[in-house]
C-alpha cells in the first residue's frame, strides 16, 4: 500500500499487536466486505495512524467533527476496519469494533463528557514514584479508573533506589490497593523487573502523573530507549510531559505496551463499580450497618465508623472514599443533565419541524 511510510516498510503482523480469534470472529463481516483489519496507534481529530499486517498507515476519519461525545471517537487501542484507498490518497476508517475494555476519565474540558484514554487494555499499570511523597488519594483514584475499565490493575512502585524505607512504603501502598499486586521496581538497578514481566498480560497501559517513571519503565520493558524521558524537579517530584502521544509498541516477550502522557488531572467518570472494588473493605463492612442507606458519617450502628474507631480502617481512607463518591456522583449528575438537555433539544427540533410543515401546508391551501 502506498500509504505506508518508508521507515515502517517492514511487515507488522497484527498478532503482535494483540489480534486473536475473538478479533477475527468480530471482524468476519467486515472482511467479507473487503475491509482491512487494523489497530489504531495514534488518533487525531481528522485522521489516525493504524497498524495493519502490511505496515502502519494513516487513515482518514470521516465525519470526525460530528463526534459530539468523545467516548465515541476513535482512540489508541481500538480495533478498526479500514476501507482501502481507491480514489483518495489515504484509506478511510469505516468502523470501530466493539471495545472489550475502555479506560475512561472525565473530560479535560470539564464538561459532562468522558474521554477514553485507551481501549482494549488487559493490564493497567498504576505507577507510583518512591522518589516523591506518597499520595494515597491519587493512587486510589487511578485504581478506581483501572477497575472500572474492566482491565486488571497492577501497582508498580518505581524508583526504589531513591527510597530509604521500602518496607514501609510497600506496606502503605498495599493498604490502599487491596486485591492488587504491588511490585517494587527500580529501572536503575533492575530490581523487580523480572517479576513485573511475568505479571503483565496482553495490552498494557502505563498510568500515572508526570515524573512517576512511566517512560523509563516502558523502555526497560521494551529493552531499548524508545520512549522519551525527562528530569524531575527535586522540590516536589514532578516531571515534564515527555510523552505527548498515546502509542502502541509490541513488547519483545509478547504483549503490547501503551504509553500515555502524564496526567495532571484524573477525574472520575461513571466509575461506581471501580470505586466499589477500590474500597472493597468499606463496601463489605457496609453490609453490617444498621441502616441500608447508611452514609457512614454519623449514623448509629454504622459498622464502617466502628471499624475506623477500632483502627481497622484509617480516617484518611474513609475520607477519600467519601470524596471520590461525591465526585463520581457529581459527574453522573452532570452527564444526566446533559442527556436530558440533548433529549429536550431533540424534542424542540421535532416540534419546530412539525410547526414549519403545518405552516407550509396551510399556505398551500
Short descriptors:
365 residues, alpha/beta, Rossmann fold, six-stranded mixed sheet, five-stranded antiparallel sheet, 9 helices, disordered N terminus, rRNA binding, nucleotide-binding, ribosome biogenesis, EC 3.6.1.-, GTP-binding
Separation of the first and last Cα atoms: 60 Å
Q: What would CATH call the class of the domain at 102-259?
A: Alpha Beta
- The backbone outline, from C-alpha atoms, is globular
What can be said about the biggest beta sheet? Answer: 6 strands, mixed
Could you state the order of secondary-structure elements as H and E?
Answer: HEEEEEEEEHEHEHEHEEHHHH
Per the CATH scheme, the topology name of the domain at 102-259 is: Rossmann fold
Strand content: 15-25%
Mean pLDDT: 84
Which percent bin holds the helix content? 25-40%
The CATH homologous superfamily of the domain at 102-259 corresponds to: P-loop containing nucleotide triphosphate hydrolases
Compose a concise summary of this entry.
With 365 residues, this protein is of the alpha/beta class. The chain contains 9 helices and 13 strands. The N terminus is likely disordered.
Q: What can you tell me about this protein's structure?
A:
The chain has helices spanning 21-32, 136-149, 166-175, 193-199, 214-222, 272-278, 280-286, 303-309, 315-364; strands at 36-43, 47-52, 55-60, 79-83, 92-96, 102-106, 114-119, 123-129, 152-158, 181-184, 203-207, 247-250, 256-259. Among the domains are: 6-96, OB fold (Dihydrolipoamide Acetyltransferase, E2P); 102-259, 3-Layer(aba) Sandwich (Rossmann fold). The chain is an alpha/beta fold and 365 residues long. The longest helix is centred in the last third of the chain and has 50 residues, at 315-364. Helix 2 (136-149) crosses helix 6. It has 9 helices and 13 strands. Helix 3 (166-175) links the parallel strand 9 (152-158) and strand 10 (181-184). Mean pLDDT is 84; it is low at 1-10 and 233-244. The strands form 3 sheets. The chain has a 6-stranded mixed beta sheet with strand order 10-9-8-11-13-12, with helices on both faces. The chain has a 5-stranded antiparallel beta sheet with strand order 3-2-1-4-5. It has a two-stranded antiparallel ribbon with strand order 6-7.
Amino acid at each position: 500500500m502506498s500509504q505506508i511510510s518508508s521507515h515502517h516498510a517492514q511487515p507488522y503482523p497484527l498478532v503482535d499487536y494483540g489480534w486473536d480469534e475473538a478479533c477475527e470472529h468480530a471482524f468476519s463481516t467486515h472482511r467479507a466486505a473487503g475491509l482491512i483489519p487494523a489497530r489504531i496507534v495514534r488518533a487525531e481529530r481528522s485522521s489516525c495512524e493504524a497498524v495493519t499486517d502490511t505496515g502502519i498507515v494513516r487513515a482518514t476519519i470521516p465525519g470526525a467533527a460530528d463526534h459530539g461525545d468523545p467516548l465515541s471517537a476513535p482512540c489508541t487501542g481500538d480495533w478498526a476496519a479500514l476501507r482501502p484507498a481507491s480514489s483518495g490518497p489515504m484509506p478511510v476508517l469505516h468502523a470501530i469494533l466493539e471495545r472489550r475494555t475502555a479506560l475512561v476519565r472525565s473530560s479535560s474540558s470539564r464538561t459532562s463528557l468522558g474521554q477514553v484514554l485507551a481501549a482494549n487494555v488487559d493490564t493497567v499499570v498504576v505507577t507510583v514514584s518512591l522518589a516523591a511523597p506518597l499520595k494515597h488519594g491519587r493512587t486510589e483514584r487511578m485504581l478506581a479508573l483501572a477497575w472500572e475499565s474492566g482491565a486488571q490493575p497492577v501497582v508498580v512502585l518505581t524508583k526504589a533506589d531513591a527510597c530509604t524505607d521500602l518496607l514501609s512504603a510497600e506496606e502503605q501502598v498495599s493498604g490502599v490497593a487491596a486485591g492488587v499486586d504491588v511490585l517494587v521496581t527500580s529501572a536503575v538497578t533492575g530490581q523487580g523487573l523480572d517479576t513485573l514481566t511475568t505479571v503483565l498480560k496482553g495490552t498494557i497501559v502505563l498510568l500515572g502523573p508526570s515524573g512517576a517513571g512511566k517512560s523509563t519503565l516502558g523502555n526497560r520493558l521494551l529493552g531499548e530507549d524508545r520512549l522519551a524521558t525527562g528530569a524531575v524537579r527535586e522540590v516536589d517530584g514532578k516531571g515534564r510531559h515527555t510523552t505527548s502521544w498515546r502509542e502502541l509498541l509490541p513488547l519483545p516477550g509478547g504483549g503490547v505496551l501503551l504509553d500515555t502522557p502524564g496526567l495532571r488531572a484524573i477525574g472520575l467518570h461513571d466509575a461506581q463499580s471501580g470505586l466499589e472494588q477500590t474500597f472493597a473493605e468499606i463496601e463489605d463492612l457496609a453490609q453490617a450497618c444498621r441502616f441500608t442507606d447508611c452514609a457512614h458519617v454519623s449514623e448509629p450502628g454504622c459498622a464502617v465508623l466502628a471499624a475506623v474507631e477500632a483502627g481497622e480502617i484509617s480516617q484518611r481512607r474513609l475520607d477519600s472514599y467519601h470524596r471520590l463518591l461525591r465526585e463520581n456522583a457529581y459527574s453522573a449528575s452532570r452527564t444526566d443533565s446533559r442527556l436530558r438537555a440533548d433529549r429536550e433539544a431533540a424534542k424542540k427540533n421535532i416540534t419546530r419541524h412539525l410547526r414549519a410543515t403545518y405552516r407550509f401546508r396551510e399556505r398551500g391551501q
